[in-house]
């Protein structure tokens, strides 16, 4: 028996789906927001092979103690600018993340991040709070690069 579950996060951003998709798939964007508050993700720690079966890896560095954590995933679906799916095989049960970009028709886009096979440790309140700070960093980055 595995102890896995699901998580869903929703955010609305004042940007078109194409820009949001590019931010989530291009290292020069990812380096500005990937990871929770208190971490950095150096550009040379990001691998994006944007195709089904391609690698997606990020190495986050803790700003306090210098320790690092590498997330290794494989893209399953790449449908610019509407859908992005990857699986982290090293995570128990193979955690699957699906990010969808829904245009609201007024220049805004709803981004829904849905994860399945999420280990209990990742579902803990502290882990979810950390994930939400990453979403906050993404929103702040978008505000800096959009008019």
Automatic annotation (TrEMBL):
Family, similarity comment: Belongs to the AHA1 family.
InterPro entries cross-referenced by the UniProt entry: ASHA1/2-like_C, START-like_dom_sf
Gene3D superfamilies (alphabetical): 3.30.530.20
Domain Activator of Hsp90 ATPase homologue 1/2-like C-terminal: 15-143
Name of the protein in question: Uncharacterized protein YndB with AHSA1/START domain
Entry superkingdom: Bacteria
